[in-house]
Design goal:
Helix 1 crosses helix 12 and helix 5 crosses helix 7. By secondary structure, the chain is α/β, with parallel strands linked by helices. Helices cover 34% and strands 17% of the residues. The chain contains twelve helices and 15 strands. The strands form three sheets. A seven-stranded parallel β-sheet has the order 9-8-7-10-11-12-13, with helices on both faces. The protein has a six-stranded mixed β-sheet with strand order 3-2-4-5-6-15. Strands 1-14 form a two-stranded antiparallel ribbon. It has two domains: 142 residues, Rossmann fold (3-Layer(aba) Sandwich); 189 residues, 3-Layer(aba) Sandwich (Rossmann fold). The structure holds 1,4-dihydronicotinamide adenine dinucleotide. The site of 1,4-dihydronicotinamide adenine dinucleotide has 31 residues, from helix 5 and helix 7. 1,4-dihydronicotinamide adenine dinucleotide binds next to helix 5 and helix 7.
Length: 347
């Protein structure tokens, strides 16, 4: 992957305002940050929004995450207070108004592949947990209920895995599934040449033949609601569906209808359409206003986690390091092409 040279650049110190800070973010960024003394970071618990964007006055850069609002109005505000660089400490950027940021002369940098294995291992953890009813077994035994009724799963060995999107995370998931002795079908707009043990097929064939379907493509115009009534109908009965990619790859209302029609053996979701207000927040005293999330949580064969696929020590360290490296590269003018979202702007 090439680098992009920037015309106007300087080596001055960079001050970053860090939004939506959680304890694990701060610990990891402070540890890795010892190696980057010219970068100063101030941490805010509040997430980026129209109201909090103005706090970035005096900072050259802000650091945001998957559920931050980096939409049109926030970009306007950030540009107004002089922010020149948005550091996404994640791979996805579907929450960023890239075009407007570029128009305002703001550069957006991201962390494209911090630990594909972290996410793929979580995808397999969800598949295994929902398949072997680990969530139910755990609660039952704690209640002195040692009955096995309702816990029957199926072997994954010799079953078929259907992997949609075979980039970094999808490829890691293919390797994990191969380790389980599964046959692997894949669907992607590009074939990954490393995956010679995988059979690339049409989406329809993947849907029709897979016992486990795992989503690893990004959210874009083509993939929005890829899983909907039409595609669910094409799936095998008793399929296990896992989504660790982005919530809107699945039409949740259609998924709920499919679950109610007993289409799925199990569903494991690390991401879902309504997650934005929930992600990374403790809402244990709240009454959930919307019925969709509550409905999903009510099914015995559905496990939902809160966008934690990335959450391993290795991934957090890699996110911190790449974010700091992005700042250094931005200052020195040699930025890795794949880390740039949209167009690079002169500093
Ligand atoms: P990647 O860019 O390496 O791979 C994505 C693959 O999807 C590429 O091979 C691409 O050709 C393919 N693709 C694009 N549009 C497609 C379509 N319409 N149909 C089928 N395939 C399509 O991305 P990577 O690193 O593997 O990440 C995948 C996604 O995982 C990210 O976009 C992000 O949404 C999600 N993610 C989730 C995390 C979590 O904590 N749950 C953490 C990191 C990423």
């Amino acid at each position: 992957m090439g680098t992009i040279a920037l015309d106007k650049c300087g080596g001055d110190d960079v001050r970053i305002l860090f939004y939506d800070t959680k304890r694990y973010d701060r610990e990891s960024f402070e540890e890795v940050g010892k190696e980057y003394p010219s970068i100063e970071v101030d941490y805010l618990e509040a997430d980026l929004s129209v109201q909090t964007a103005r706090l970035a006055r005096g900072y050259e850069a802000v650091c945001a995450f998957v559920s931050s609002d980096v939409g049109t109005a926030v970009i306007e505000e950030l540009a107004q207070v002089g922010v020149r660089l948005i550091l996404m400490r994640c791979a996805g950027f579907n929450n960023v108004d890239v075009e407007n940021a570029n128009k305002k002369g703001i550069t957006i940098l991201r962390v494209p592949g911090y630990s594909p294995e972290a996410v793929a291992e979580h995808a397999m953890a969800l598949a295994l947990a929902v398949n072997r009813r680990i969530h139910k077994g755990y609660i039952k035994v704690r209640e002195n209920n040692f009955s096995l009724v309702g816990l029957t799963g199926m072997n994954l060995y010799k079953k078929t895995a259907g992997i949609i999107g075979t980039g970094k995370i999808g490829a890691a998931m293919c390797r994990i599934c191969a380790g389980f002795g599964m046959k692997i079908l894949a669907y992607d707009i590009y074939k990954n040449p490393e995956l010679d043990f995988v059979e690339y097929v049409s989406l329809d064939r993947l849907l029709a033949e897979s016992d486990l379907i795992s989503l690893h493509c990004p959210l874009n115009d083509e993939s929005y609601h890829l899983i909907c009534n039409d595609t669910i109908e094409k799936m095998k009965d008793n399929v296990i569906l896992v989504n660790t990619s982005r919530g809107a790859l699945i039409n949740t209302a259609d998924l709920i209808a499919g679950i109610r029609n007993r289409k799925f053996f199990g569903v494991g979701l690390d991401v879902y359409e309504e997650e934005t207000n929930n992600v990374f927040e403790n809402r244990e005293d709240d009454i959930l206003e919307t019925s969709v999330t509550a409905r999903l949580l009510s099914f015995p064969n559905v496990i939902v986690t809160s966008h934690q696929g990335f959450l391993t020590e290795e991934a957090l360290a890699a996110i911190s390091r790449t974010t700091y490296d992005n700042v250094v590269a931005y200052s020195s003018g040699n930025i890795k092409e794949e880390n740039v979202v949209g167009k690079l702007q002169a500093r």
